[in-house]
Write a structure and sequence with these properties.
GO molecular function, one term: methyltransferase activity
InterPro entries: Pantoate_hydroxy_MeTrfase, Pyrv/PenolPyrv_kinase-like_dom, Pyrv_kinase-like_dom_sf
Family: Belongs to the PanB family.
Low-confidence stretches: 1-14
Strand order of the largest sheet: 1-2-3-4-5-6-7-8
Strand content: 5-15%
CATH architecture of the largest domain: Alpha-Beta Barrel
Pathway: Cofactor biosynthesis; (R)-pantothenate biosynthesis; (R)-pantoate from 3-methyl-2-oxobutanoate: step 1/2
Function: Catalyzes the reversible reaction in which hydroxymethyl group from 5,10-methylenetetrahydrofolate is transferred onto alpha-ketoisovalerate to form ketopantoate.
Length: 283
Protein backbone atom coordinates (compact mmCIF):
# COMPACT_ATOMS: atom_id res chain seq x y z
CA UNK A 1 0.00 0.00 0.00
CA UNK A 2 1.27 3.49 -0.81
CA UNK A 3 2.03 5.92 1.99
CA UNK A 4 1.29 9.56 2.63
CA UNK A 5 4.13 12.11 2.75
CA UNK A 6 6.66 11.60 5.50
CA UNK A 7 5.58 12.19 9.07
CA UNK A 8 7.05 15.21 10.91
CA UNK A 9 9.97 15.04 13.35
CA UNK A 10 11.49 12.02 11.67
CA UNK A 11 8.64 9.66 12.59
CA UNK A 12 7.69 6.74 10.39
CA UNK A 13 5.10 7.38 7.70
CA UNK A 14 1.62 6.07 8.39
CA UNK A 15 -0.03 3.82 5.82
CA UNK A 16 -2.52 5.65 3.66
CA UNK A 17 -6.17 5.00 4.27
CA UNK A 18 -7.85 2.83 1.64
CA UNK A 19 -9.15 4.94 -1.26
CA UNK A 20 -12.79 4.77 -0.21
CA UNK A 21 -14.81 7.96 0.18
CA UNK A 22 -17.31 6.37 2.58
CA UNK A 23 -16.74 2.97 4.12
CA UNK A 24 -19.68 0.61 3.70
CA UNK A 25 -20.28 -2.89 5.02
CA UNK A 26 -19.38 -4.43 1.67
CA UNK A 27 -15.93 -2.85 1.80
CA UNK A 28 -15.10 -4.90 4.91
CA UNK A 29 -16.06 -8.07 3.02
CA UNK A 30 -13.94 -7.00 0.06
CA UNK A 31 -10.96 -6.27 2.29
CA UNK A 32 -11.28 -9.70 3.87
CA UNK A 33 -11.29 -11.30 0.43
CA UNK A 34 -8.14 -9.45 -0.61
CA UNK A 35 -6.41 -9.96 2.74
CA UNK A 36 -6.33 -6.26 3.66
CA UNK A 37 -6.64 -5.61 7.39
CA UNK A 38 -8.99 -2.90 8.59
CA UNK A 39 -9.26 -0.82 11.76
CA UNK A 40 -11.89 0.07 14.33
CA UNK A 41 -11.75 2.38 17.35
CA UNK A 42 -14.44 3.42 19.76
CA UNK A 43 -15.67 7.00 19.86
CA UNK A 44 -18.39 8.70 21.85
CA UNK A 45 -18.21 12.30 20.61
CA UNK A 46 -17.74 14.52 17.58
CA UNK A 47 -14.14 15.59 18.23
CA UNK A 48 -12.56 12.14 18.48
CA UNK A 49 -14.66 10.93 15.53
CA UNK A 50 -13.18 13.73 13.41
CA UNK A 51 -9.66 12.77 14.46
CA UNK A 52 -10.17 9.06 13.75
CA UNK A 53 -11.59 9.97 10.34
CA UNK A 54 -8.56 12.11 9.52
CA UNK A 55 -6.23 9.33 10.69
CA UNK A 56 -7.88 6.83 8.34
CA UNK A 57 -9.70 4.65 10.86
CA UNK A 58 -12.06 2.52 8.80
CA UNK A 59 -14.86 1.82 11.28
CA UNK A 60 -15.94 3.59 14.45
CA UNK A 61 -17.83 1.81 17.20
CA UNK A 62 -20.04 3.89 19.45
CA UNK A 63 -19.72 1.27 22.15
CA UNK A 64 -21.73 0.82 25.29
CA UNK A 65 -18.25 0.98 26.82
CA UNK A 66 -19.12 4.67 26.95
CA UNK A 67 -20.96 3.70 30.10
CA UNK A 68 -17.56 3.16 31.72
CA UNK A 69 -15.41 5.68 29.89
CA UNK A 70 -17.86 8.59 29.58
CA UNK A 71 -20.64 8.12 32.12
CA UNK A 72 -18.65 6.53 34.94
CA UNK A 73 -20.70 3.35 35.39
CA UNK A 74 -18.99 0.30 36.85
CA UNK A 75 -20.09 -1.83 33.88
CA UNK A 76 -21.94 -1.52 30.59
CA UNK A 77 -25.17 -2.90 32.05
CA UNK A 78 -26.74 0.43 33.19
CA UNK A 79 -26.36 2.11 29.77
CA UNK A 80 -29.67 3.13 28.21
CA UNK A 81 -30.69 3.39 24.59
CA UNK A 82 -31.27 7.13 25.02
CA UNK A 83 -27.68 7.55 26.22
CA UNK A 84 -26.38 5.56 23.26
CA UNK A 85 -28.36 7.72 20.85
CA UNK A 86 -26.95 10.95 22.29
CA UNK A 87 -23.34 9.71 22.05
CA UNK A 88 -23.85 8.28 18.57
CA UNK A 89 -25.32 11.51 17.20
CA UNK A 90 -22.08 13.35 17.82
CA UNK A 91 -19.93 10.60 16.34
CA UNK A 92 -22.00 10.42 13.15
CA UNK A 93 -21.68 14.18 12.69
CA UNK A 94 -17.92 13.96 13.07
CA UNK A 95 -17.21 10.98 10.82
CA UNK A 96 -17.38 11.60 7.08
CA UNK A 97 -15.55 8.46 5.89
CA UNK A 98 -15.63 5.82 8.61
CA UNK A 99 -18.45 3.31 8.96
CA UNK A 100 -20.20 4.17 12.24
CA UNK A 101 -21.69 1.28 14.21
CA UNK A 102 -23.81 1.79 17.32
CA UNK A 103 -24.12 -0.67 20.21
CA UNK A 104 -27.50 -1.91 21.36
CA UNK A 105 -27.30 -1.72 25.17
CA UNK A 106 -28.29 -4.40 27.64
CA UNK A 107 -32.01 -5.07 27.88
CA UNK A 108 -32.93 -3.47 24.55
CA UNK A 109 -32.85 -6.54 22.30
CA UNK A 110 -32.63 -9.78 24.29
CA UNK A 111 -36.37 -10.19 24.97
CA UNK A 112 -37.46 -10.76 21.38
CA UNK A 113 -36.65 -10.06 17.74
CA UNK A 114 -39.40 -7.44 17.77
CA UNK A 115 -37.83 -5.62 20.73
CA UNK A 116 -34.47 -5.75 18.97
CA UNK A 117 -35.94 -4.28 15.80
CA UNK A 118 -37.64 -1.37 17.55
CA UNK A 119 -34.45 -0.56 19.48
CA UNK A 120 -32.21 -0.80 16.43
CA UNK A 121 -34.61 1.28 14.35
CA UNK A 122 -34.47 4.05 16.97
CA UNK A 123 -30.67 3.99 16.98
CA UNK A 124 -30.53 4.23 13.18
CA UNK A 125 -33.30 6.83 12.80
CA UNK A 126 -32.41 9.11 15.72
CA UNK A 127 -28.61 8.85 15.59
CA UNK A 128 -28.19 7.91 11.92
CA UNK A 129 -25.63 5.18 12.54
CA UNK A 130 -24.96 2.94 9.54
CA UNK A 131 -25.25 -0.34 11.47
CA UNK A 132 -25.81 -1.76 14.94
CA UNK A 133 -23.90 -4.24 17.09
CA UNK A 134 -25.37 -6.73 19.51
CA UNK A 135 -23.88 -9.40 21.75
CA UNK A 136 -24.61 -13.10 21.49
CA UNK A 137 -24.30 -16.02 19.11
CA UNK A 138 -26.70 -18.90 18.61
CA UNK A 139 -29.20 -17.41 21.07
CA UNK A 140 -29.32 -14.09 19.22
CA UNK A 141 -29.62 -15.52 15.70
CA UNK A 142 -33.38 -14.81 15.54
CA UNK A 143 -32.76 -11.16 16.46
CA UNK A 144 -30.02 -10.81 13.85
CA UNK A 145 -32.23 -12.38 11.21
CA UNK A 146 -35.11 -10.04 12.07
CA UNK A 147 -32.91 -6.96 11.84
CA UNK A 148 -31.15 -7.87 8.61
CA UNK A 149 -34.39 -8.82 6.90
CA UNK A 150 -35.75 -5.46 8.01
CA UNK A 151 -32.90 -3.52 6.42
CA UNK A 152 -30.68 -3.03 9.47
CA UNK A 153 -27.04 -4.16 9.09
CA UNK A 154 -25.81 -6.11 12.13
CA UNK A 155 -22.32 -6.63 13.50
CA UNK A 156 -22.40 -9.56 15.93
CA UNK A 157 -20.24 -9.89 19.06
CA UNK A 158 -19.22 -13.27 20.51
CA UNK A 159 -16.61 -14.72 22.84
CA UNK A 160 -16.51 -12.60 25.97
CA UNK A 161 -19.61 -10.43 25.93
CA UNK A 162 -19.38 -7.62 28.52
CA UNK A 163 -23.14 -7.28 29.00
CA UNK A 164 -23.11 -10.87 30.29
CA UNK A 165 -20.17 -10.46 32.65
CA UNK A 166 -22.25 -11.47 35.68
CA UNK A 167 -23.37 -14.67 33.94
CA UNK A 168 -19.86 -15.44 32.70
CA UNK A 169 -18.31 -14.90 36.12
CA UNK A 170 -16.34 -11.77 35.30
CA UNK A 171 -13.86 -10.88 32.60
CA UNK A 172 -12.71 -14.31 31.48
CA UNK A 173 -11.31 -15.65 28.23
CA UNK A 174 -13.94 -17.62 26.29
CA UNK A 175 -13.34 -20.61 24.02
CA UNK A 176 -10.52 -22.44 25.71
CA UNK A 177 -10.43 -26.22 25.41
CA UNK A 178 -13.86 -27.72 24.87
CA UNK A 179 -15.32 -24.20 24.76
CA UNK A 180 -13.77 -23.64 21.33
CA UNK A 181 -16.60 -25.49 19.62
CA UNK A 182 -19.12 -23.18 21.26
CA UNK A 183 -17.37 -20.13 19.79
CA UNK A 184 -17.38 -21.76 16.36
CA UNK A 185 -21.07 -22.57 16.64
CA UNK A 186 -21.84 -18.98 17.62
CA UNK A 187 -19.78 -17.68 14.69
CA UNK A 188 -21.57 -19.90 12.19
CA UNK A 189 -24.95 -18.96 13.63
CA UNK A 190 -24.47 -15.20 13.37
CA UNK A 191 -23.15 -15.51 9.82
CA UNK A 192 -26.08 -17.70 8.77
CA UNK A 193 -28.48 -15.19 10.39
CA UNK A 194 -27.12 -12.40 8.19
CA UNK A 195 -24.51 -10.51 10.24
CA UNK A 196 -22.06 -8.61 8.03
CA UNK A 197 -19.20 -8.99 10.54
CA UNK A 198 -18.48 -10.42 13.98
CA UNK A 199 -16.40 -9.15 16.89
CA UNK A 200 -14.37 -11.83 18.69
CA UNK A 201 -13.49 -10.67 22.20
CA UNK A 202 -11.02 -12.42 24.52
CA UNK A 203 -10.89 -15.59 22.42
CA UNK A 204 -7.70 -17.67 22.16
CA UNK A 205 -5.71 -16.77 19.07
CA UNK A 206 -5.87 -20.23 17.54
CA UNK A 207 -9.66 -20.31 17.90
CA UNK A 208 -10.01 -16.83 16.40
CA UNK A 209 -7.80 -17.91 13.51
CA UNK A 210 -10.01 -20.93 12.84
CA UNK A 211 -13.15 -18.81 12.95
CA UNK A 212 -11.60 -16.24 10.59
CA UNK A 213 -10.63 -18.91 8.08
CA UNK A 214 -14.02 -20.60 8.17
CA UNK A 215 -16.27 -17.55 7.93
CA UNK A 216 -16.99 -15.62 4.76
CA UNK A 217 -17.83 -12.51 6.82
CA UNK A 218 -15.03 -10.43 8.39
CA UNK A 219 -13.90 -10.98 11.97
CA UNK A 220 -12.85 -8.12 14.24
CA UNK A 221 -10.56 -9.03 17.11
CA UNK A 222 -10.13 -7.56 20.55
CA UNK A 223 -7.88 -9.79 22.58
CA UNK A 224 -8.18 -12.44 19.86
CA UNK A 225 -4.73 -12.47 18.29
CA UNK A 226 -3.41 -11.10 15.01
CA UNK A 227 -5.17 -13.26 12.45
CA UNK A 228 -8.61 -11.64 12.55
CA UNK A 229 -9.55 -9.47 9.58
CA UNK A 230 -9.77 -6.29 11.67
CA UNK A 231 -8.86 -5.01 15.12
CA UNK A 232 -10.74 -2.85 17.61
CA UNK A 233 -9.68 -1.10 20.82
CA UNK A 234 -11.34 1.26 23.27
CA UNK A 235 -9.65 4.55 22.52
CA UNK A 236 -9.13 5.64 26.13
CA UNK A 237 -7.19 2.41 26.72
CA UNK A 238 -5.17 2.62 23.51
CA UNK A 239 -4.16 6.26 23.94
CA UNK A 240 -3.55 6.37 27.67
CA UNK A 241 -6.46 8.46 28.91
CA UNK A 242 -7.36 5.53 31.14
CA UNK A 243 -4.60 5.40 33.76
CA UNK A 244 -6.05 2.42 35.58
CA UNK A 245 -5.67 -1.26 34.87
CA UNK A 246 -6.17 -2.18 31.22
CA UNK A 247 -6.55 -5.64 29.66
CA UNK A 248 -3.47 -7.56 28.58
CA UNK A 249 -4.42 -7.20 24.90
CA UNK A 250 -4.23 -3.40 24.96
CA UNK A 251 -1.23 -1.62 23.46
CA UNK A 252 -0.81 2.02 24.43
CA UNK A 253 -0.07 4.19 21.41
CA UNK A 254 -0.03 7.56 23.20
CA UNK A 255 -0.18 9.12 26.67
CA UNK A 256 -3.08 11.54 26.35
CA UNK A 257 -3.56 11.68 30.12
CA UNK A 258 -0.11 13.21 30.67
CA UNK A 259 -0.59 15.76 27.90
CA UNK A 260 -3.93 16.91 29.33
CA UNK A 261 -2.63 16.88 32.90
CA UNK A 262 0.40 18.99 32.00
CA UNK A 263 -1.75 21.43 30.07
CA UNK A 264 -4.26 21.77 32.89
CA UNK A 265 -1.52 22.32 35.47
CA UNK A 266 0.07 25.02 33.31
CA UNK A 267 -3.32 26.72 32.93
CA UNK A 268 -3.86 26.68 36.69
CA UNK A 269 -0.40 28.12 37.28
CA UNK A 270 -0.78 30.92 34.75
CA UNK A 271 -4.20 31.98 36.01
CA UNK A 272 -2.91 31.98 39.59
CA UNK A 273 0.18 34.07 38.78
CA UNK A 274 -1.69 36.44 36.47
CA UNK A 275 0.22 35.63 33.27
CA UNK A 276 -3.01 34.49 31.59
CA UNK A 277 -4.81 36.16 30.01
CA UNK A 278 -2.00 38.24 28.48
CA UNK A 279 -2.59 41.39 26.39
CA UNK A 280 -2.85 39.29 23.20
CA UNK A 281 -5.77 37.38 24.73
CA UNK A 282 -7.66 40.53 25.66
CA UNK A 283 -10.04 42.60 23.51
Amino acid sequence: MSTEESAPYGGASAPAAPSVKRVRTHHLREWKETGEKFTMLTSYDLMTARIWDEAGIDTILVGDSGGNTVLGYSSTVPVTLDEMIVMARGVVRGAKRALVIGDLPFGTYQASPEQAYHSAARLMKEAEVAAVKLEGGVDMAPQIQKLTRGGIPVCAHIGFTPQSEHTLGGYRVQGRGAGAEGVLQDARAVQDAGAFAVVLEMVPGDVATEVTKELAIPTIGIGAGSETDGQVLVWQDAFGLNTGRVPRFVKRYADVNSVLLDGARTYVSEVKDGSFPAPEHTF
